[in-house]
Fold this sequence. Notes:
CATH architecture: 2-Layer Sandwich
Order of helices and strands: EHHEEHHEH
Structural class: alpha+beta
Distance between the termini: 23 Å
Amino acid sequence: MAIIVNIYYTGENGNARKFAEEMVSSGIVNDIRDEEGNERYEYFFSMKDPETVLLIDSWKDQKSIDMHHESPMMAQIIKLREKYDLHMKVERYISDEEGVPLADKKYIKD
């Protein structure tokens, strides 16, 4: 059971994108991806809203998320969010262990 967290970062004057770029260039993203329990950490840019960046963050379990929140990287992330004056909307999902239903598979091209 993975926990998937979608975080929508919104700012002004391209700050959300600058934040994501600095997260990558500073090495923080690679450090997070190397944390035990991290399964995915990727940024996506909206075609509809250039001031919003989506982070898809997936973890093995709640314990892994809690450990990440207690890590030194969290302070770095918070500092960067403040630097770019970002606002956040968070969605949280639990993966479906059954996978994609057979009825849906006919619409998916591998």
